[in-house]
Design brief:
By secondary structure, the chain is an alpha+beta fold. 49% of the residues lie in helices and 18% in strands. It has four domains: 45 residues; 216 residues, no CATH class; 305 residues, no CATH class; 193 residues, no CATH class.
Length: 845
């Protein structure tokens, strides 16, 4: 017998089947399977309702343990959410550009006496030559800067310290910085044009329309027309600037002068490695004596996290911090999950009969596992709203610590919603995994008869291991915080080889540049000004200013080993340099105004003497040439080594002291003024007045040298602050879990403690009975944590050329503090139980 055409409904959709060749029996089997499927869905839904009801009942019955679990999970989730926001921001750097996936920065690897160093400066003619010879390059831009010394005027009011770059006219076609007014294609076409950001426009023009207005550059002594207004540069851009000038070719630019950086836009499916080799060959073709040994193209999306170049010192090695803080947040999250696992498995005897009855009633192990996972996911779901509230309160503090401008708005940042669900799921699975697998393994006959349940001993051992793991992770965080604190203290208090206190620096302009000696004499008449000097020492310390090749082109000295390629970095100074910075002179003498020959003489630092292989440097002849923009004959400077100064740090402690040669040559320099501590504000007002006599409308753009030096370590300071907060959170969650465990164990041993008290046990004996076991666990946690912490922090310390050695005292102190905190947590509950009335204890059921 066969059926005709029939309609079937499945999940709200209509399916048509022709049954002309199908028997009624087969048709009946199909209908039966459909009915069973519907029944299964109803059954699964009812089971889920049952799991949910059971979970809510347990939560209501055990409020204290539920509170501990939810608090721990909420704090752990909060840390994870903050880290997700932070990591999301770190990974987003430079990805907003339309061509980000094909945009690269050219990095040059150059040969020096100290080895190969990475640098951003290349020969000026390289850009046009690359575009002409390599068809795989779609476009490029030359990058010169950043500059902060432009003195700009509008309507008689002066402004300084705006960050400026010189870029090629098609810069805005390569980089996607949105224009508010003007055109990205033509904004830099005019030779004396300027494109400014909203922030700069507000500062200069207020509510006026800036387009078409003129800004006067005092240094260039000409007007620049505002041809474009762009949005403020996002924080997640490695290029930070206030304005862009068009780069103009200068007379005499040649392949031997390295003053430009480059960005290249590659065509699709272009091999950056192959192109790098071609660029090296191109440079060597035009300049055979180049110090450039190799080139690599660095994706702009990697610059913020992976760059190890001095010019990127503000964000260098950020991937290390991403790993460090991500692992820290993960540790806190694991500690919270361990709390749940510990308390759930500790209470297994209270749930054993329930599980046994469920199994007798027909529930299989899969159903029991589902039930426990449902409970843990429910607790995670209850913890999430609390975590979101905590995140809202913690985010301003976290932004202040990290220097970010993170926002947490689910409606605006819809991408974080799946991440929140993943956090709930992961939390539920990790926290509920062992309880679900362990508790579901009980045999129903054993648990109903209250027989010895197989696995109890292993469960107790696991709980101990989990507590040990918790405190091991906490101790690692404590040690990490202490080591970072010691390193930062070492940085702050290390003798840098010069006096950094009460020194203000600024770039000279106006009479401070053109009539330096006269202005210096006038300024020194002020009773609170001790010394004034001009040098490129502080100018070279104000990173990032490393687009430039070492100005020394060729150098030789008396007794030079032919294989010695040391090229000291020249630092221009004047006669008061040593007195201003209190740098010790080890040998010879310093420059003298009475000796005209000193204009060609030099002084070395200790590192230069060693690197140059000089045993008795005083009186040795030395000659060198300086690179210039001009292609004409470069003059040779001949002189004598007249002195040796003690080493001083011209860079941050991330870098080693380099060989330095002090000269009286007029290289780009900063002015340094050493002042007395008293009447500091009045002294600066005096300097500002002298400045405005030369540059009306401009404020003195001074900086304190000690603040400049502190800025080198801003990223490390931020990491320390975050690490400290996270360490306290870790110990809080661990102690929260420990408190729960102690409470539970005391609850289970109530009768035992009552009997001991009746038989004469002392109060101290009862307390030590409960405390001793936990002390052993904490001590073992220290043994595990110390080697792991030493390895991790030793890796972090490699970021510093000068660093502390983690002392044994730091490890012992971290262990001692953790032990004391754990003892306080345990002792509170132990004392409470020990003071309980034994009669009440023996009545306890």
């Amino acid at each position: 017998m066969y059926a005709g055409e029939h309609k079937l409904f499945k999940n709200g959709q209509v399916y048509y089947y022709e049954w002309r060749n199908t028997s009624i029996e087969e048709y009946g089997i199909y209908l039966a399977s459909m009915i069973l499927e519907k029944v299964k869905l109803i059954w699964d839904f009812n089971m889920f309702k049952n799991y949910l009801k059971t979970a809510l009942r347990n939560i209501k019955k055990h409020k204290g343990y539920t509170f501990i679990n939810i608090c721990g999970l909420a704090v752990g989730m909060t840390c994870c959410i903050l880290m997700l926001l932070w990591v999301q921001n770190e990974l987003s750097y430079d990805r907003f550009h339309e061509h980000a996936h094909n945009l690269y920065r050219v990095v040059f690897e150059k040969r020096t006496a100290q080895g190969t160093t990475e640098d951003l400066s290349g020969p000026v003619p390289l850009g046009p030559a690359m575009k002409a010879e390599f068809p795989e390059i779609a476009d490029f831009t030359t990058c010169m800067g950043p500059y902060t010394g432009n003195n700009l005027l509008y309507n008689g009011k002066g402004f300084m310290n705006d960050i400026c770059y010189n870029m090629d006219p098609h810069f805005f076609e390569i980089f996607s910085f949105p224009f508010i007014k003007g055109s990205s294609k033509t904004a830099l076409n005019e030779p004396y044009s300027i494109v400014i950001t909203e922030k700069m426009a507000r500062k200069y023009f207020g509510d006026e329309d800036p387009l078409g207005k003129f800004i006067y550059d005092e240094e260039a002594q000409r007007d620049y027309k505002v041809t474009g207004l762009i949005e403020n540069i996002p924080q997640n851009s490695h290029l930070q600037f206030d304005c862009i000038y068009p780069r103009r070719a200068q007379r005499g630019e040649n392949w031997s002068r390295y003053i430009a950086g480059y960005y290249v836009l590659l065509k699709e499916k272009t091999s950056s490695d192959e192109l790098s080799l071609k660029i090296v060959d191109l440079v060597k073709k035009h300049h055979p004596e180049t110090s450039i040994e190799s080139v690599y193209l660095q994706p702009i999306t990697n610059i913020h996290l992976y760059s190890d170049i001095e010019a990127d010192v503000e964000g260098r090695r950020n991937i290390t911090y991403v790993y460090l803080l991500s692992v820290t947040a993960l540790i806190i999250f694991l500690i919270a999950c361990i709390n749940y696992m510990n308390l759930s498995t500790a209470r297994f005897t209270l749930r054993a009969k329930e599980i046994g009855i469920r199994k007798v009633s027909g529930a299989c192990r899969k159903n029991i596992i589902e039930q426990f996972f449902c409970e843990s996911i429910l607790l995670s779901s209850l913890a999430l709203p609390i975590a979101l509230i905590l995140t809202e309160f913690a985010l301003p503090v976290f932004n202040n610590l990290s220097g970010k401008q993170l926002t947490f708005n689910i409606l605006k940042n819809i991408y974080i919603v799946p991440e929140l669900f993943i956090i709930i799921l992961i939390t539920g699975v990790i926290a509920g995994s062992y309880p679900a697998l362990f508790l579901s393994s009980f045999q129903p006959v054993q648990v109903i008869k209250e027989a010895n349940i197989r696995g109890i001993r292993s469960n107790i051992l696991l709980r101990r291991l989990l507590i040990i793991m918790q405190f091991s992770l906490t101790i690692i965080l404590f040690i990490g915080t202490a080591v970072i604190h010691n390193q930062l203290n070492f940085i702050r208090n290390r003798n840098l080889g010069f006096d950094r206190n009460n020194i203000i620096t600024f770039e000279p302009a106006g009479d401070f540049y053109w009539n330096y000696q006269r202005v210096k004499h006038e300024v020194l008449q002020h009773p609170d000004i001790i010394n004034v000097t001009k040098s490129s020492f502080t100018e070279n310390s104000n990173l990032p200013r490393h687009m430039y090749e070492n100005p020394i082109k060729e150098i030789t000295w008396e007794g030079k080993n032919p294989g010695n390629e040391t090229v000291p970095y020249p630092t221009s100074v004047d006669y008061d340099f040593l007195r201003t910075f209190n740098i010790p002179l080890l040998e010879g003498r310093f420059f003298s105004k009475d000796l005209a020959t000193d204009s060609s003489n030099v002084i070395l630092n200790e590192t230069a003497v060693k690197a140059m292989g000089l045993t008795s440097p005083i009186g040795k002849r030395i000659s060198f040439k300086l690179r210039t923009l001009s292609s004409s004959e470069i003059p040779t400077h001949n002189g004598l080594i007249i002195g040796v100064v003690k080493d001083f740090h011209q860079r941050s402690l991330h870098s080693k002291i380099q060989p330095i040669i002090l000269t009286l040559l007029d290289l780009p320099s900063d002015l340094t003024v050493k002042v007395k501590t008293e009447n500091m504000s009045e002294t600066i007002s005096f300097m500002n007045k002298k400045w405005q006599e030369s540059l009306p409308g401009f404020e003195l753009p001074y900086k304190f040298l000690d603040e400049t030096i502190d800025n080198f370590y801003k990223a490390d300071e931020r990491i320390f602050s975050i690490f400290t907060y996270f360490s306290f959170l870790a110990i809080f969650i661990a102690c929260l879990g420990l408190f729960g465990m102690v409470s539970f164990m005391a609850e289970r041993r109530t009768k035992e403690i009552g009997i001991r008290k009746v038989l004469g046990a002392s109060l101290l004996g009862i307390i030590s009975l409960q405390v001793t076991e936990f002390i052993k666990w904490i001590l073992l946690a220290n043994v595990i944590a110390w080697p792991a912490a030493y390895f991790a922090m030793n890796r972090w310390l490699q970021n510093f050329a000068y660093r502390v050695n983690p002392s044994v005292f730091v490890f012992m102190l971290a262990g001692f503090i953790t032990l004391i905190i754990a003892l306080i947590t345990v002792s509170y509950q132990a004392v409470k139980v020990a003071h309980a009335n034994p009669v009440e204890s023996l009545r306890y059921e």
